[in-house]
Amino acid sequence: MGAAYSTAYHVEPAPVVHNTEGYATIHENVFHQPLNEPLSTFSIDVDAASYSNMRRFLSQGQKPPVDAVRIEEMINYFDYDYPQPEGNDPFSINTELSSAPWNPKHYLVHIGLQGKVIPTDNLPPSNLVFQIDVSGSMSDPNKLPLLKSSFKLLTEQLRPVDKVAIVVYAGAAGLVLPPTSGSDKQTIMEAFDKLQAGGSTAGGAGIHLAYKTALENLVEGGNNRVILATDGDFNVGESSDASMERLIEQKRNDGIFLTVLGFGMGNYKDSKMEILADKGNGNYAYIDNILEAKKVLVNEFGGTLFTIAKDVKIQVEFNPAKVQAYRLIGYENRLLNKEDFNDDKKDAGELGSGHTVTALYEIIPVGVNSSFLPVDPLKYQQNTVVPDAAKTNELMTVKLRYKQPDGDTSKLLVNTIMDEPTAKTSENYRWSAAVAGFGMMLRNSEFKGDITYDQVVSLANGAKGQDKNGYRIEFINLVKSAMLLN
Q1: Is 329 strand, coil or helix?
Q2: Span 234-257, mean pLDDT?
């Protein structure tokens, strides 16, 4: 007999990849009754990281985790066509009222801020410190290689009056490029080319060195900013969310702002990145591809890097003679106590040059029956509407406070919205409503009403405007992708 040959092959098992991405739990805002809670107070949010992170999941054929969907960041990913401010204040306030697409018996209130556009030549000199994570977890192609390409795009935007230093951190932190003029782009580019990933992640040590470098080169009246680029997976030294929060709160008092750029997947720590940006007088973007890097660091260069108003807070008082209940859509991680509005020591969000910020309230008008009003009448006290409230046609009063970038005292602005809904809505209104509706569907929100993917697509198609960068048509295609995943 001939020799017997085995046809069995030894196959190595595929390595197990553990997904350790971290997201802060979002407890969705509910409806409140003005007679019990007349005030709604929150900090503005110009971050857009949640949108590009959501896009990353949908592009890979999967729904994003519910807590990765922050609806206000989805809305604020897009620019809106608001008028430039005309007075001395650095932003204009724009409001609109109509019916909510997902529940036509309810109102939807649209509040939009437009930051003043400052031409690049008129922007103050920048003192920038690039704080770059070069730990082993950053070796993937969508991490350090994409990061280096992204920062090269930013470097091309720098002027001779700007200066850049580069701090890297892995097992330890080090200064790899001392402050260098924006005119010496070759030296800055060469410093990026030499970066390699390896080692553990001492995020706290890196932050200390980055802020120390920025403080030593502080430009009075200039734009002093640390730009942190990482996957957020800190694991050496100060690394917990609480310790990082305290560290950043301490550092922001030196007049240095923070931009956080997130990269990667699998071990991505969104919750930590959001805390750093929120507490560090900063903004936060997630870079999932080179086009997003171009959007954040080139197209929105001024808004990302140059603050025109800080600690911007909004407080809304609702007229109970007109409003049976109200709900702020999104901003769950930005809610403030009502006392915080007048307290200038309380931190809030920053607005950059040319940035827009949009917030939406859903309102149940008086006289509309709703299952969202389960609260029984109070037994020991009686809240009543004051006679003057019943006589006026005011629906709500919007108050804003902001400080100059180098100021300590806030200024108050007041805007009244009348109970005069319009049937002919703007593209701004319809687009924000479409994005909010999609966000509620991704979250499987109890408040999404009867909205459908087809309705979101139809609403968005009728509001995409010129869309010169294609961001809005991309959104419409994402909605269609999500529809196929059901």
Answers
A1: strand
A2: 73
